[in-house]
Amino acid sequence: MGCSIRALWILNQHRHVVFSRRFPTVEKKWKNARSKHGDGICYSLPSDAQLIQSFVERKEREGSFRGLATREEYSQPGSDSWVDDPITRSIISLQIPKPDESGELYLLWPIVFHIRGPFHILVLPFVEPHHLATYENLCWRADCGGPVANGHNSLSSLLLDLPSITGAFCVAQTLGDLIVGEALEPEININPSSTMGGLLDSITGGIGIASITARAKPVAAPVAAAATAIAAGVTGAAPAGILGSTTTKGILKASDKEALLGFITSAMPFGTPLDLNPITINAIKANGFSAQDIPPQDQKQPAWKPYLFKSKQKLVFALHEVVTAALYDRDDVADVITLKGQLLCRADLEGLPDVNVQLSCPSSGEIDGVTFHPCAQALDHGPDKQTITFSPPLGNFVLAKYMATPAFRPPLQGFYQLSMVSDDEGAFLFRMKLLEGYKGPIVMEQCSLSIPFHRRTIAALDGAPSMGTVSNTDHSIEWKILAGHRSTISKSMEVTYSGTVKFAPRAVDTNQRDTVGFSDDDEIDCGNENKMDKADMNLVAAKWEDPFCWEAYSYAKASVKLVGGTMSGVSIDTKTVAIYPTAKVPCEVSSQIISGEYIFWNSLGRYPHVAPA
Protein backbone atom coordinates (compact mmCIF):
# COMPACT_ATOMS: atom_id res chain seq x y z
CA MET A 1 0.00 0.00 0.00
CA GLY A 2 1.29 3.46 -0.89
CA CYS A 3 0.88 6.79 0.84
CA SER A 4 -2.07 9.16 0.62
CA ILE A 5 -2.47 12.44 2.49
CA ARG A 6 -5.87 13.48 3.86
CA ALA A 7 -4.84 17.00 4.84
CA LEU A 8 -1.91 19.18 5.91
CA TRP A 9 -1.59 22.37 7.91
CA ILE A 10 1.23 24.86 8.45
CA LEU A 11 1.10 26.92 11.65
CA ASN A 12 3.34 29.76 12.79
CA GLN A 13 4.65 30.64 16.25
CA HIS A 14 1.64 32.87 16.87
CA ARG A 15 -0.64 29.81 16.62
CA HIS A 16 -2.21 30.88 13.34
CA VAL A 17 -2.80 28.60 10.36
CA VAL A 18 -0.83 30.25 7.54
CA PHE A 19 -1.52 27.48 5.00
CA SER A 20 -3.74 24.42 4.79
CA ARG A 21 -4.68 21.91 2.11
CA ARG A 22 -7.31 19.17 2.16
CA PHE A 23 -7.57 16.41 -0.43
CA PRO A 24 -11.24 15.50 -1.11
CA THR A 25 -10.31 12.37 -3.09
CA VAL A 26 -8.44 10.86 -0.14
CA GLU A 27 -11.11 12.04 2.29
CA LYS A 28 -13.77 10.25 0.25
CA LYS A 29 -11.60 7.14 0.38
CA TRP A 30 -11.44 7.51 4.19
CA LYS A 31 -15.21 7.87 4.51
CA ASN A 32 -15.78 4.78 2.37
CA ALA A 33 -13.31 2.77 4.43
CA ARG A 34 -14.96 3.97 7.64
CA SER A 35 -18.38 2.99 6.32
CA LYS A 36 -17.20 -0.50 5.38
CA HIS A 37 -15.62 -0.85 8.82
CA GLY A 38 -19.04 -0.25 10.37
CA ASP A 39 -17.97 2.57 12.69
CA GLY A 40 -21.14 4.59 12.27
CA ILE A 41 -20.77 8.35 11.87
CA CYS A 42 -17.67 9.56 10.01
CA TYR A 43 -16.75 13.06 11.11
CA SER A 44 -15.31 15.54 8.62
CA LEU A 45 -11.90 17.11 8.91
CA PRO A 46 -11.75 19.99 11.41
CA SER A 47 -11.74 23.59 10.31
CA ASP A 48 -8.57 25.63 10.76
CA ALA A 49 -10.03 27.27 13.88
CA GLN A 50 -10.93 23.89 15.41
CA LEU A 51 -7.48 22.53 14.63
CA ILE A 52 -5.75 25.47 16.33
CA GLN A 53 -7.95 25.14 19.39
CA SER A 54 -7.27 21.41 19.70
CA PHE A 55 -3.54 21.93 19.10
CA VAL A 56 -3.28 24.52 21.88
CA GLU A 57 -5.32 22.33 24.24
CA ARG A 58 -2.96 19.45 23.54
CA LYS A 59 0.00 21.66 24.41
CA GLU A 60 -1.60 22.57 27.74
CA ARG A 61 -2.45 18.93 28.41
CA GLU A 62 0.93 17.48 27.40
CA GLY A 63 3.15 20.27 28.77
CA SER A 64 4.68 21.33 25.43
CA PHE A 65 3.88 21.28 21.74
CA ARG A 66 5.77 18.04 21.18
CA GLY A 67 4.42 16.45 24.32
CA LEU A 68 5.79 14.49 27.26
CA ALA A 69 6.35 11.20 25.40
CA THR A 70 6.37 9.41 28.77
CA ARG A 71 3.57 8.70 31.18
CA GLU A 72 3.70 10.98 34.22
CA GLU A 73 1.52 11.30 37.31
CA TYR A 74 -0.57 13.99 35.65
CA SER A 75 -0.93 12.12 32.29
CA GLN A 76 -4.56 11.61 31.35
CA PRO A 77 -6.04 8.40 29.90
CA GLY A 78 -6.74 8.95 26.23
CA SER A 79 -3.77 11.29 25.72
CA ASP A 80 -0.56 10.68 23.76
CA SER A 81 1.61 10.64 26.89
CA TRP A 82 -0.55 7.83 28.28
CA VAL A 83 0.79 5.61 25.48
CA ASP A 84 4.24 6.07 27.03
CA ASP A 85 6.26 5.99 23.79
CA PRO A 86 8.83 8.60 22.61
CA ILE A 87 7.48 8.45 19.06
CA THR A 88 4.42 10.38 20.24
CA ARG A 89 6.56 13.52 20.16
CA SER A 90 6.57 13.28 16.35
CA ILE A 91 3.35 11.34 15.65
CA ILE A 92 0.60 13.04 17.62
CA SER A 93 -3.17 12.93 17.96
CA LEU A 94 -5.68 15.73 18.39
CA GLN A 95 -9.01 15.57 20.19
CA ILE A 96 -11.57 17.37 18.00
CA PRO A 97 -15.06 18.41 19.24
CA LYS A 98 -17.90 16.56 17.54
CA PRO A 99 -20.15 18.83 15.44
CA ASP A 100 -23.32 17.75 17.31
CA GLU A 101 -22.46 20.12 20.22
CA SER A 102 -22.66 17.22 22.68
CA GLY A 103 -19.28 18.16 24.14
CA GLU A 104 -17.83 14.79 23.13
CA LEU A 105 -14.53 14.48 21.25
CA TYR A 106 -13.29 12.32 18.41
CA LEU A 107 -9.65 11.38 17.75
CA LEU A 108 -7.68 12.64 14.74
CA TRP A 109 -4.63 10.35 14.25
CA PRO A 110 -1.91 9.86 13.05
CA ILE A 111 -0.65 13.41 12.58
CA VAL A 112 3.03 13.74 11.67
CA PHE A 113 4.40 16.77 13.53
CA HIS A 114 7.49 18.55 12.16
CA ILE A 115 9.04 21.84 13.37
CA ARG A 116 11.01 23.90 10.84
CA GLY A 117 12.13 27.41 11.70
CA PRO A 118 9.13 29.40 12.94
CA PHE A 119 6.64 26.92 11.46
CA HIS A 120 4.81 23.87 12.80
CA ILE A 121 3.89 21.45 10.01
CA LEU A 122 1.11 18.90 10.55
CA VAL A 123 0.49 16.14 7.99
CA LEU A 124 -2.42 13.69 8.30
CA PRO A 125 -1.92 10.52 6.19
CA PHE A 126 -4.60 7.99 5.32
CA VAL A 127 -4.69 4.87 7.51
CA GLU A 128 -7.27 2.13 7.71
CA PRO A 129 -9.99 2.62 10.37
CA HIS A 130 -8.88 -0.48 12.29
CA HIS A 131 -5.42 1.12 12.74
CA LEU A 132 -7.08 4.18 14.30
CA ALA A 133 -9.16 1.92 16.54
CA THR A 134 -6.01 0.11 17.67
CA TYR A 135 -4.37 3.39 18.65
CA GLU A 136 -7.50 4.52 20.53
CA ASN A 137 -7.31 1.32 22.57
CA LEU A 138 -3.64 1.98 23.33
CA CYS A 139 -4.55 5.44 24.64
CA TRP A 140 -6.78 3.88 27.31
CA ARG A 141 -4.88 0.74 28.28
CA ALA A 142 -3.57 0.70 31.83
CA ASP A 143 -0.55 -1.45 30.92
CA CYS A 144 0.56 0.52 27.84
CA GLY A 145 4.24 1.41 27.58
CA GLY A 146 7.14 -0.09 29.50
CA PRO A 147 7.77 -3.80 28.90
CA VAL A 148 4.60 -4.07 26.81
CA ALA A 149 6.21 -1.78 24.21
CA ASN A 150 8.13 -4.79 22.91
CA GLY A 151 4.97 -6.83 22.31
CA HIS A 152 2.81 -7.24 19.24
CA ASN A 153 0.15 -4.83 20.56
CA SER A 154 2.51 -1.87 20.99
CA LEU A 155 2.59 1.41 19.12
CA SER A 156 5.90 0.46 17.46
CA SER A 157 4.43 -2.71 15.98
CA LEU A 158 1.39 -0.73 14.80
CA LEU A 159 3.53 1.87 13.02
CA LEU A 160 5.54 -0.84 11.25
CA ASP A 161 2.29 -1.75 9.50
CA LEU A 162 1.79 1.83 8.26
CA PRO A 163 4.10 2.79 5.36
CA SER A 164 2.06 5.98 4.92
CA ILE A 165 3.76 7.34 8.06
CA THR A 166 7.12 7.35 6.27
CA GLY A 167 5.58 9.15 3.30
CA ALA A 168 4.00 11.75 5.57
CA PHE A 169 7.37 12.44 7.20
CA CYS A 170 8.89 12.99 3.73
CA VAL A 171 6.10 15.42 2.86
CA ALA A 172 6.53 17.34 6.12
CA GLN A 173 10.31 17.58 5.75
CA THR A 174 10.09 18.73 2.12
CA LEU A 175 7.52 21.42 2.93
CA GLY A 176 9.69 22.59 5.83
CA ASP A 177 12.74 22.90 3.57
CA LEU A 178 10.71 24.81 0.99
CA ILE A 179 9.23 27.41 3.29
CA VAL A 180 12.57 28.24 4.97
CA GLY A 181 14.41 28.33 1.64
CA GLU A 182 16.65 25.29 1.96
CA ALA A 183 15.26 23.10 -0.83
CA LEU A 184 18.53 23.25 -2.76
CA GLU A 185 20.54 20.65 -4.58
CA PRO A 186 23.28 19.28 -2.27
CA GLU A 187 26.83 20.37 -3.13
CA ILE A 188 29.46 17.83 -4.09
CA ASN A 189 33.13 18.80 -4.01
CA ILE A 190 34.76 17.91 -7.33
CA ASN A 191 38.48 17.95 -8.12
CA PRO A 192 38.74 20.71 -10.74
CA SER A 193 41.82 19.14 -12.32
CA SER A 194 39.82 16.12 -13.46
CA THR A 195 38.44 15.84 -16.97
CA MET A 196 34.76 15.84 -16.17
CA GLY A 197 33.09 16.29 -19.58
CA GLY A 198 29.34 16.61 -19.39
CA LEU A 199 29.39 16.32 -15.60
CA LEU A 200 31.46 19.48 -15.20
CA ASP A 201 29.26 21.23 -17.72
CA SER A 202 26.08 20.54 -15.78
CA ILE A 203 27.61 21.39 -12.40
CA THR A 204 29.28 24.64 -13.45
CA GLY A 205 26.18 25.60 -15.39
CA GLY A 206 24.31 25.33 -12.12
CA ILE A 207 26.67 27.71 -10.32
CA GLY A 208 27.00 30.27 -13.11
CA ILE A 209 30.42 29.81 -14.73
CA ALA A 210 29.63 31.36 -18.10
CA SER A 211 32.94 30.48 -19.82
CA ILE A 212 32.15 26.78 -19.64
CA THR A 213 28.39 26.85 -20.24
CA ALA A 214 28.95 27.49 -23.95
CA ARG A 215 29.76 23.80 -24.41
CA ALA A 216 27.08 21.31 -25.42
CA LYS A 217 24.56 20.58 -22.70
CA PRO A 218 23.23 17.14 -21.79
CA VAL A 219 19.50 16.50 -21.87
CA ALA A 220 19.51 16.82 -18.07
CA ALA A 221 20.22 20.55 -18.35
CA PRO A 222 16.65 21.57 -17.35
CA VAL A 223 17.27 20.09 -13.93
CA ALA A 224 20.50 22.04 -13.50
CA ALA A 225 18.72 25.18 -14.66
CA ALA A 226 15.99 24.58 -12.10
CA ALA A 227 18.59 24.26 -9.37
CA THR A 228 20.05 27.58 -10.49
CA ALA A 229 16.63 29.23 -10.40
CA ILE A 230 15.98 28.01 -6.89
CA ALA A 231 19.40 29.06 -5.61
CA ALA A 232 19.00 32.51 -7.15
CA GLY A 233 15.43 32.96 -5.96
CA VAL A 234 14.05 33.57 -9.46
CA THR A 235 10.46 34.82 -9.40
CA GLY A 236 8.08 32.29 -10.84
CA ALA A 237 10.08 29.20 -9.94
CA ALA A 238 7.83 27.18 -7.69
CA PRO A 239 10.22 26.47 -4.82
CA ALA A 240 11.91 29.85 -5.13
CA GLY A 241 8.67 31.65 -4.38
CA ILE A 242 8.90 30.39 -0.84
CA LEU A 243 12.23 32.07 -0.21
CA GLY A 244 10.83 35.36 1.04
CA SER A 245 12.40 37.13 3.99
CA THR A 246 9.06 37.19 5.77
CA THR A 247 9.19 33.42 6.36
CA THR A 248 11.62 34.01 9.24
CA LYS A 249 8.81 35.87 11.00
CA GLY A 250 6.29 33.09 10.47
CA ILE A 251 4.48 34.88 7.63
CA LEU A 252 3.59 33.51 4.22
CA LYS A 253 2.65 36.09 1.59
CA ALA A 254 0.02 35.43 -1.05
CA SER A 255 2.73 34.69 -3.63
CA ASP A 256 4.36 32.24 -1.23
CA LYS A 257 1.08 30.41 -0.72
CA GLU A 258 0.46 30.28 -4.46
CA ALA A 259 3.92 28.84 -5.11
CA LEU A 260 3.48 26.31 -2.30
CA LEU A 261 0.09 25.25 -3.66
CA GLY A 262 1.60 24.86 -7.13
CA PHE A 263 4.32 22.58 -5.79
CA ILE A 264 1.83 20.44 -3.85
CA THR A 265 -0.41 20.10 -6.90
CA SER A 266 2.50 18.84 -9.02
CA ALA A 267 4.35 16.77 -6.41
CA MET A 268 1.34 15.05 -4.82
CA PRO A 269 -1.71 15.23 -7.13
CA PHE A 270 -4.96 14.20 -5.43
CA GLY A 271 -3.01 13.72 -2.18
CA THR A 272 -0.66 10.98 -3.43
CA PRO A 273 3.07 11.91 -3.22
CA LEU A 274 4.86 11.01 -6.48
CA ASP A 275 8.09 13.00 -6.59
CA LEU A 276 8.92 15.43 -3.78
CA ASN A 277 12.10 16.80 -5.37
CA PRO A 278 11.35 20.52 -5.97
CA ILE A 279 14.17 20.82 -8.53
CA THR A 280 12.70 18.07 -10.70
CA ILE A 281 9.18 19.46 -10.34
CA ASN A 282 10.33 22.92 -11.34
CA ALA A 283 12.25 21.56 -14.35
CA ILE A 284 9.18 19.73 -15.65
CA LYS A 285 6.93 22.80 -15.20
CA ALA A 286 9.45 25.11 -16.86
CA ASN A 287 10.58 22.91 -19.77
CA GLY A 288 7.98 20.20 -20.35
CA PHE A 289 8.97 17.25 -22.55
CA SER A 290 10.18 16.87 -26.10
CA ALA A 291 10.34 13.98 -28.56
CA GLN A 292 13.85 13.19 -27.30
CA ASP A 293 12.51 12.52 -23.80
CA ILE A 294 10.49 9.42 -24.72
CA PRO A 295 11.54 6.60 -22.36
CA PRO A 296 12.63 3.20 -23.70
CA GLN A 297 9.78 0.83 -24.44
CA ASP A 298 11.20 -2.08 -22.43
CA GLN A 299 11.96 -0.09 -19.25
CA LYS A 300 9.80 1.76 -16.75
CA GLN A 301 11.08 5.28 -16.18
CA PRO A 302 10.95 6.31 -12.48
CA ALA A 303 9.37 9.59 -11.40
CA TRP A 304 12.68 10.88 -10.03
CA LYS A 305 14.30 10.74 -13.50
CA PRO A 306 11.97 12.55 -15.92
CA TYR A 307 14.81 13.27 -18.38
CA LEU A 308 17.43 10.87 -19.72
CA PHE A 309 21.08 11.87 -19.64
CA LYS A 310 22.99 11.98 -22.94
CA SER A 311 26.62 13.05 -22.74
CA LYS A 312 29.95 11.89 -21.36
CA GLN A 313 29.26 9.55 -18.46
CA LYS A 314 30.65 9.99 -14.96
CA LEU A 315 29.94 8.65 -11.47
CA VAL A 316 30.84 10.66 -8.35
CA PHE A 317 30.41 9.79 -4.67
CA ALA A 318 31.10 12.12 -1.73
CA LEU A 319 31.09 11.23 1.96
CA HIS A 320 30.26 14.24 4.13
CA GLU A 321 30.38 13.87 7.92
CA VAL A 322 29.42 16.42 10.57
CA VAL A 323 30.86 16.14 14.07
CA THR A 324 29.23 17.89 17.03
CA ALA A 325 30.96 18.04 20.38
CA ALA A 326 30.64 19.42 23.89
CA LEU A 327 34.12 19.25 25.48
CA TYR A 328 34.47 19.98 29.21
CA ASP A 329 38.04 19.01 30.22
CA ARG A 330 36.71 17.68 33.53
CA ASP A 331 37.09 14.35 35.27
CA ASP A 332 33.52 14.31 36.57
CA VAL A 333 31.81 15.19 33.25
CA ALA A 334 32.18 13.10 30.12
CA ASP A 335 32.63 14.78 26.77
CA VAL A 336 29.69 14.41 24.40
CA ILE A 337 30.54 13.64 20.76
CA THR A 338 28.09 12.75 18.00
CA LEU A 339 28.77 12.02 14.36
CA LYS A 340 26.37 11.94 11.43
CA GLY A 341 27.09 11.54 7.77
CA GLN A 342 25.69 11.65 4.26
CA LEU A 343 26.61 9.75 1.13
CA LEU A 344 26.10 12.16 -1.76
CA CYS A 345 26.06 11.03 -5.34
CA ARG A 346 25.93 12.30 -8.88
CA ALA A 347 25.43 9.68 -11.57
CA ASP A 348 25.54 11.07 -15.09
CA LEU A 349 24.69 7.79 -16.79
CA GLU A 350 22.89 7.18 -20.05
CA GLY A 351 19.68 5.16 -20.02
CA LEU A 352 18.17 3.70 -16.84
CA PRO A 353 20.98 1.65 -15.28
CA ASP A 354 21.26 0.18 -11.77
CA VAL A 355 24.33 0.92 -9.66
CA ASN A 356 25.79 -1.14 -6.83
CA VAL A 357 28.08 0.45 -4.24
CA GLN A 358 29.49 -0.88 -0.98
CA LEU A 359 30.18 1.15 2.15
CA SER A 360 33.04 -0.24 4.22
CA CYS A 361 33.35 0.47 7.95
CA PRO A 362 36.34 -0.46 10.17
CA SER A 363 35.95 -2.51 13.33
CA SER A 364 36.72 0.58 15.43
CA GLY A 365 33.67 2.39 14.04
CA GLU A 366 30.05 1.53 13.40
CA ILE A 367 27.29 3.00 11.26
CA ASP A 368 23.72 2.94 12.47
CA GLY A 369 20.34 4.49 11.74
CA VAL A 370 20.88 4.36 7.99
CA THR A 371 18.17 5.85 5.76
CA PHE A 372 18.14 5.79 1.96
CA HIS A 373 16.89 7.78 -1.01
CA PRO A 374 13.65 6.35 -2.48
CA CYS A 375 15.67 5.19 -5.52
CA ALA A 376 17.82 2.88 -3.36
CA GLN A 377 17.55 -0.55 -1.78
CA ALA A 378 19.79 -1.93 0.95
CA LEU A 379 21.16 -5.39 0.25
CA ASP A 380 23.91 -7.03 2.32
CA HIS A 381 24.27 -5.48 5.75
CA GLY A 382 26.95 -6.50 8.20
CA PRO A 383 29.08 -4.99 10.98
CA ASP A 384 31.74 -3.90 8.47
CA LYS A 385 29.83 -3.26 5.24
CA GLN A 386 26.61 -2.03 3.70
CA THR A 387 25.74 -2.73 0.07
CA ILE A 388 23.37 -0.36 -1.73
CA THR A 389 21.79 -0.76 -5.15
CA PHE A 390 19.99 2.17 -6.76
CA SER A 391 18.58 3.58 -9.98
CA PRO A 392 20.01 7.10 -9.86
CA PRO A 393 18.02 10.30 -10.47
CA LEU A 394 19.41 13.34 -12.24
CA GLY A 395 21.72 15.83 -10.58
CA ASN A 396 23.22 15.73 -7.10
CA PHE A 397 21.26 13.81 -4.49
CA VAL A 398 21.64 12.34 -1.01
CA LEU A 399 21.89 8.57 -1.49
CA ALA A 400 22.05 7.71 2.22
CA LYS A 401 22.19 9.28 5.67
CA TYR A 402 23.65 7.62 8.75
CA MET A 403 24.72 8.00 12.34
CA ALA A 404 28.16 6.67 13.21
CA THR A 405 30.42 5.77 16.09
CA PRO A 406 33.69 7.73 15.68
CA ALA A 407 36.72 5.64 14.84
CA PHE A 408 38.99 8.55 15.85
CA ARG A 409 39.07 11.19 18.53
CA PRO A 410 37.79 14.66 17.60
CA PRO A 411 40.12 16.45 15.17
CA LEU A 412 40.48 19.38 17.58
CA GLN A 413 41.05 18.57 21.27
CA GLY A 414 42.20 20.56 24.26
CA PHE A 415 40.82 23.03 26.77
CA TYR A 416 39.69 26.60 27.23
CA GLN A 417 40.08 28.42 30.54
CA LEU A 418 38.81 31.87 31.47
CA SER A 419 39.32 33.38 34.89
CA MET A 420 37.94 36.81 35.78
CA VAL A 421 40.70 38.80 37.50
CA SER A 422 38.24 41.58 38.19
CA ASP A 423 34.73 42.48 37.10
CA ASP A 424 36.09 44.08 33.92
CA GLU A 425 39.18 41.96 33.14
CA GLY A 426 39.70 38.26 32.44
CA ALA A 427 42.72 36.05 31.75
CA PHE A 428 42.28 33.18 29.30
CA LEU A 429 44.29 30.21 28.02
CA PHE A 430 43.81 27.85 25.08
CA ARG A 431 45.81 24.68 24.55
CA MET A 432 44.72 22.72 21.50
CA LYS A 433 45.89 19.55 19.76
CA LEU A 434 45.17 19.25 16.05
CA LEU A 435 44.78 15.92 14.21
CA GLU A 436 45.98 13.78 17.09
CA GLY A 437 45.70 10.15 15.97
CA TYR A 438 44.99 11.04 12.34
CA LYS A 439 47.12 9.95 9.38
CA GLY A 440 47.28 10.79 5.70
CA PRO A 441 45.58 11.35 3.37
CA ILE A 442 43.40 13.30 5.85
CA VAL A 443 44.29 16.99 5.80
CA MET A 444 42.91 19.86 7.90
CA GLU A 445 42.01 22.80 5.66
CA GLN A 446 40.23 25.10 8.09
CA CYS A 447 40.33 25.65 11.84
CA SER A 448 39.16 28.62 13.89
CA LEU A 449 37.79 29.45 17.33
CA SER A 450 35.26 32.09 18.31
CA ILE A 451 34.82 33.21 21.94
CA PRO A 452 31.56 35.16 22.38
CA PHE A 453 30.77 37.63 25.17
CA HIS A 454 27.19 38.56 24.38
CA ARG A 455 26.60 40.59 27.55
CA ARG A 456 29.93 42.43 27.68
CA THR A 457 31.68 44.85 25.33
CA ILE A 458 35.37 44.19 24.65
CA ALA A 459 37.50 47.29 25.29
CA ALA A 460 41.00 45.82 24.84
CA LEU A 461 42.65 42.51 23.95
CA ASP A 462 46.21 41.47 24.74
CA GLY A 463 48.12 38.30 23.80
CA ALA A 464 49.41 36.45 20.73
CA PRO A 465 48.80 32.85 19.63
CA SER A 466 51.52 30.37 18.71
CA MET A 467 49.91 30.01 15.30
CA GLY A 468 47.36 31.91 13.24
CA THR A 469 45.86 35.37 13.57
CA VAL A 470 43.55 37.02 16.12
CA SER A 471 40.93 39.72 15.75
CA ASN A 472 38.01 40.89 17.82
CA THR A 473 34.64 42.56 17.51
CA ASP A 474 32.71 44.34 20.24
CA HIS A 475 31.39 41.06 21.60
CA SER A 476 33.73 38.26 20.45
CA ILE A 477 37.33 37.14 19.94
CA GLU A 478 38.15 35.37 16.67
CA TRP A 479 41.21 33.11 16.45
CA LYS A 480 41.90 31.79 12.94
CA ILE A 481 44.36 28.95 13.25
CA LEU A 482 44.03 27.91 9.60
CA ALA A 483 42.44 30.25 7.10
CA GLY A 484 42.07 28.24 3.89
CA HIS A 485 43.48 25.98 1.19
CA ARG A 486 46.88 27.68 1.06
CA SER A 487 47.71 26.63 4.62
CA THR A 488 46.88 23.07 5.59
CA ILE A 489 47.92 20.63 8.30
CA SER A 490 48.51 16.94 7.63
CA LYS A 491 50.14 15.85 10.90
CA SER A 492 49.48 16.21 14.61
CA MET A 493 50.56 19.44 16.29
CA GLU A 494 49.79 21.58 19.34
CA VAL A 495 48.87 25.27 19.40
CA THR A 496 48.37 27.66 22.32
CA TYR A 497 46.93 31.09 22.88
CA SER A 498 47.00 33.01 26.17
CA GLY A 499 46.13 36.59 26.92
CA THR A 500 43.86 39.01 28.73
CA VAL A 501 40.63 40.66 27.72
CA LYS A 502 39.34 43.89 29.19
CA PHE A 503 35.65 44.80 29.09
CA ALA A 504 33.94 48.16 29.14
CA PRO A 505 32.19 48.90 32.46
CA ARG A 506 28.71 47.48 32.72
CA ALA A 507 26.03 49.93 31.61
CA VAL A 508 22.45 49.83 32.84
CA ASP A 509 20.10 49.83 29.86
CA THR A 510 16.70 51.02 31.00
CA ASN A 511 15.19 50.06 27.66
CA GLN A 512 16.32 46.44 27.81
CA ARG A 513 13.63 43.95 28.76
CA ASP A 514 14.49 41.74 31.70
CA THR A 515 11.58 39.43 31.18
CA VAL A 516 10.78 37.39 28.15
CA GLY A 517 7.30 38.44 27.11
CA PHE A 518 6.65 38.39 23.41
CA SER A 519 4.16 40.32 21.36
CA ASP A 520 2.81 39.20 18.02
CA ASP A 521 5.54 41.19 16.23
CA ASP A 522 8.44 39.42 17.96
CA GLU A 523 10.48 36.70 16.34
CA ILE A 524 10.69 33.37 18.11
CA ASP A 525 12.78 30.46 16.88
CA CYS A 526 10.34 27.58 17.05
CA GLY A 527 13.19 25.22 16.25
CA ASN A 528 13.93 25.44 19.98
CA GLU A 529 10.64 24.65 21.65
CA ASN A 530 12.01 25.44 25.11
CA LYS A 531 12.16 29.10 24.14
CA MET A 532 8.43 29.15 23.49
CA ASP A 533 7.68 27.39 26.75
CA LYS A 534 9.84 29.90 28.67
CA ALA A 535 8.17 32.75 26.83
CA ASP A 536 4.82 31.55 28.09
CA MET A 537 6.09 31.53 31.68
CA ASN A 538 7.76 34.99 31.57
CA LEU A 539 11.08 33.73 32.92
CA VAL A 540 14.01 36.04 33.44
CA ALA A 541 16.61 35.19 30.82
CA ALA A 542 19.53 36.51 28.80
CA LYS A 543 19.30 37.80 25.28
CA TRP A 544 17.91 35.15 22.99
CA GLU A 545 20.89 35.21 20.64
CA ASP A 546 22.56 32.77 23.04
CA PRO A 547 20.50 31.60 26.02
CA PHE A 548 23.38 29.58 27.49
CA CYS A 549 25.73 32.55 27.76
CA TRP A 550 24.51 33.81 31.13
CA GLU A 551 26.69 35.25 33.87
CA ALA A 552 29.37 32.62 34.64
CA TYR A 553 28.71 30.52 31.51
CA SER A 554 31.37 31.01 28.84
CA TYR A 555 32.60 28.89 25.98
CA ALA A 556 34.54 28.83 22.72
CA LYS A 557 33.00 27.57 19.50
CA ALA A 558 35.23 25.82 16.98
CA SER A 559 34.90 25.56 13.21
CA VAL A 560 36.95 22.87 11.46
CA LYS A 561 37.09 21.25 8.03
CA LEU A 562 39.06 18.17 7.01
CA VAL A 563 39.30 16.49 3.61
CA GLY A 564 40.63 13.14 2.48
CA GLY A 565 38.81 10.86 4.91
CA THR A 566 36.02 10.38 7.43
CA MET A 567 35.95 10.38 11.21
CA SER A 568 33.89 7.18 11.24
CA GLY A 569 36.32 5.38 8.96
CA VAL A 570 33.54 4.79 6.42
CA SER A 571 34.93 4.54 2.90
CA ILE A 572 34.08 3.47 -0.64
CA ASP A 573 36.36 1.33 -2.78
CA THR A 574 35.79 2.24 -6.43
CA LYS A 575 36.55 -1.39 -7.34
CA THR A 576 33.31 -2.46 -5.61
CA VAL A 577 31.17 -0.10 -7.73
CA ALA A 578 29.26 -1.95 -10.43
CA ILE A 579 26.86 -0.71 -13.12
CA TYR A 580 24.17 -2.85 -14.81
CA PRO A 581 24.01 -3.09 -17.80
CA THR A 582 27.79 -3.19 -17.70
CA ALA A 583 29.46 0.03 -18.75
CA LYS A 584 32.94 1.47 -18.37
CA VAL A 585 32.37 4.69 -16.48
CA PRO A 586 35.02 6.62 -14.50
CA CYS A 587 34.22 6.83 -10.80
CA GLU A 588 35.50 9.34 -8.25
CA VAL A 589 35.17 9.33 -4.45
CA SER A 590 35.80 12.26 -2.12
CA SER A 591 35.25 12.72 1.61
CA GLN A 592 35.28 15.50 4.16
CA ILE A 593 34.59 16.23 7.82
CA ILE A 594 33.10 19.51 9.01
CA SER A 595 32.08 20.72 12.45
CA GLY A 596 28.58 21.34 13.67
CA GLU A 597 28.07 22.72 17.19
CA TYR A 598 31.65 22.20 18.41
CA ILE A 599 31.90 23.70 21.88
CA PHE A 600 34.74 24.00 24.41
CA TRP A 601 33.22 24.92 27.77
CA ASN A 602 35.29 27.03 30.15
CA SER A 603 36.86 24.44 32.46
CA LEU A 604 37.19 27.04 35.25
CA GLY A 605 33.57 28.18 35.13
CA ARG A 606 30.04 26.86 35.23
CA TYR A 607 28.78 24.58 32.50
CA PRO A 608 25.47 23.05 31.39
CA HIS A 609 25.29 19.30 30.92
CA VAL A 610 22.86 16.41 31.14
CA ALA A 611 23.45 14.15 34.12
CA PRO A 612 23.49 10.42 33.28
CA ALA A 613 20.54 8.33 34.42
From TrEMBL:
Q: What organism, scientifically named, is this protein from? A: Selaginella moellendorffii (Spikemoss)
- The answer, when asked if Thylakoid is one of the entry's keywords, is no
Which CDD domains does the entry mention?
A: AP_MuD_MHD
In the bilayer, the protein is annotated as:
Peripheral membrane protein
**Short name of any one Pfam family annotated for the protein:** Adap_comp_sub
Q: Which GO terms describe its biological process?
A: endosomal transport; protein transport
Q: What is this protein called?
A: MHD domain-containing protein
Subcellular location(s) of the protein:
Endomembrane system
Q: What InterPro entries does this protein map onto? A: AP2_Mu_C_sf, AP5M1, MHD
Annotated MHD domain ranges read 312-563
RNA-binding as a keyword of this entry, yes or no, is no
For this protein, the record's SUPFAM superfamilies field holds:
Second domain of Mu2 adaptin subunit (ap50) of ap2 adaptor
Q: Name one GO cellular component term.
A: AP-type membrane coat adaptor complex
* Keywords carried by this UniProt record: Membrane, Protein transport, Transport
Q: Which family does it belong to?
A: Belongs to the adaptor complexes medium subunit family.
